[in-house]
Request: fold
Amino acid sequence: RKPQFRLRASMIEKEVPAAERPATFLRGIDEGPSNSPDSVRGRFERMIREAQDSVCAAIEAADGGARFKEDVWSRPGGGGGISRVLQDGAVWEKAGVNVSVVYGVMPPEAYRAANPSQNGNVKPGPVPFFAAGISSVLHPKNPFAPTLHFNYRYFETDAPKDAPGAPRQWWFGGGTDLTPAYIFEEDVKHFHQVQKNTCDKFNSDFYPRFKKWCDDYFYIKHRGERRGLGGIFFDDLNSYDQDMLLSFATECANSVIPAYLPIIEKRKDTPFTDKHKAWQQLRRGRYVEFNLVYDRGTTFGLKTGGRIESILVSLPLTARWEYDHQPEEGSEEWKLLDACINPKEWL
Amino acid sequence: RKPQFRLRASMIEKEVPAAERPATFLRGIDEGPSNSPDSVRGRFERMIREAQDSVCAAIEAADGGARFKEDVWSRPGGGGGISRVLQDGAVWEKAGVNVSVVYGVMPPEAYRAANPSQNGNVKPGPVPFFAAGISSVLHPKNPFAPTLHFNYRYFETDAPKDAPGAPRQWWFGGGTDLTPAYIFEEDVKHFHQVQKNTCDKFNSDFYPRFKKWCDDYFYIKHRGERRGLGGIFFDDLNSYDQDMLLSFATECANSVIPAYLPIIEKRKDTPFTDKHKAWQQLRRGRYVEFNLVYDRGTTFGLKTGGRIESILVSLPLTARWEYDHQPEEGSEEWKLLDACINPKEWL
Reply:
């Protein structure tokens, strides 16, 4: 799935801090109708910014004390982002919710790879692209309260100028997934049920397909285990109506809080011991391994010169690596590890 | 420098635990004189195993309580290793000292890359290789006591069977480097002076050249900063007499304890605050970023199926990531960061 693009995209401009949030990060419509407020770009940007506001408001309310710190940044040639981070709260030790809009240029191989049947004989030049997305990782303090990650993104390429007839491309990607250190079956079921309900509103194939995609994607190959207990994940999705996929991404983003907060409310004050905390920290170490070694967004961002603090806000506040740690067979720690090695059907 | 090889080497066999240390991990001499005890392979293996014994004995004595746990493993087709880890000691929170011997096969591109002038016109098949090395990372508890890393390795390829006249290759690599969270100039000077003294016994060019190579290698590109305060590093070294380079690697390994332990003795009991500890943990986070994203040995090992627990023993017991942490200008934390961004001449 277009790994070439992800690994070989051109460098993007250095970002600069901005004093306040602009109404839009899109370039002006004098650069083409695809930047108009009614375009998919414009509607997607509004969606992710509204989702950022509503998720941050819900997290602040549930945390009951700490506030998100906001950084706004932009790039001279267009695009920018809003990073919001809550650190050392009552419930979350680190919670990041970022939106960004990027105008960049991808190498032509990537464009061919995206649609080999239609332009296998042409040699287009570099292809300008547009990408917008929301990305969030929420790490609670309590070892019985799970980490949540979600990310929804929209991608467009221009039609390459020197390849007449070669089409413009667009696709959606994203997902929401849960990473507990301990399994409460009712929590995992609830989380997956919300994902399924959202998927089922659009296509009954979506949940089984995107659930498996999620299990396959969040795989720490060198460990032979997944980062967590999954959820849904999809990428390069363009074989459905564009408006339908925009609605689907919107509903997915709106499902984050109902899927996650009831679990947090139940687990945030559960008493725990040092042993529980150490196991959570070991699992956080696995989170770091996945994100730095395998995650496409992270490795792409590090290689192309994205805003480092926004990219790495996904890393936990603290993590731990013990040599050759093996949970005792049958223990609660072992059950979590088993479910990460052998993904289960929760519904 | 042969990145192709490091990223594209074939998978190696799965290791199996062994009940006790064998006299040698080399294949029998019936597989060729290069496996004899007097060969460079045999002498290098003895050297790294003696260095492992002496470093572990010195660390245990200085720690004053904790002992190394040993795991011996081997591969059915030849080769194996000894991993030793001391965890939660009085002085070190995690100390790993590993030796390994690997027989593998590298893709032909790598071999051509190693010597383009002599076999640019031949298309050799996969090239068997031999690699042996010692690798160690020592993470102390006290934030004023620095982390030390060293690694010395020897590499050989067979002459490719289907490329008549193409030569056999060999090279040495390695280095010793210091990663403090706080700078004590006398400590850094002492450390670098020992490296220079060792280098100067062999070639007056070695220290300046390998000091710069070290600063260049341990570079966290996405941060624009180095992992620590350097030392020496070299790779692909074969333009000197083989016996001389074996002696040089031996002296380097023997210099580890005199370069490092006097610093530990001075700093291990220095009183510290939570603020000092948090800064040490942030720098440990940078250590994790370098090792998982850039370190050749780590990324090579993860991709090729090396023994994961041995490879990742280099990661600290605990690490920390704070969003957008900026030390106050002029502070002790800022001075360390400045020296990581702008490498200094310490002698």
